[in-house]
Amino acid sequence: MTDLINSTLRRIPASTIYIVGAAWAGWLFWQGVTGAIGVDPIEALEHAYGEVALKLIVAGLFVSPLRAWSGINLSKFRRAIGVTAFFFVLAHFLVWAVLDVRSLSAVWADIVKRPYVTIGMASFLMLIPLAVTSNNLSMRKMGTASWRKLHTLIHPAAVLGALHYVWLVKGFQIEPLIYTVIICGLVALRYVPKLTKAAQG
Length: 201
Description:
Blueprint: H1 2-10, H2 15-34, H3 41-70, H4 75-101, H5 104-113, H6 115-132, H7 136-142, H8 144-150, H9 154-168, H10 174-199
Helix pairs in contact: 2-3, 2-4, 3-4, 3-9, 3-10, 4-6, 5-6, 6-9, 7-8, 9-10
């Protein structure tokens, strides 16, 4: 069954992720323009883009554990998932900065005064070099080891993004906590074996 799944996945181009992501982003924006997304379309669109970004980040972090546990190999899609996640993070930021806050000074004031905005911005800034270097040319110029080391920034960026979501929502909501637990668990999987091995000497 695993071989059949992997064989099918090999026939699907990675560019499908970009196409579906762009279509979904456009659909969400259209819903915002027409008012179909809620009574406050700007806030709803801002949150929708952010939630899609988090889901894609979770999907990207899940690629390696899924292959290890089940043998299903989604590695060819990981770069497209990551770049598309950044696209949604960027859309989330632009809706907030351009349509919601609408002022550079107000953007800076929010970053300084509101902790959830501060950690959200920190996560966004960590993702920028990852998006810029998500290409074969950057990997060749940087060298595989340096490139991989840089891309471990996805781990703190993902955790901060989840905390940003928890802090952002009003009142107690279970969904942001679920994202946080999943992301922290997936990140921990990358380090716990290394820490255990180091402790055993």
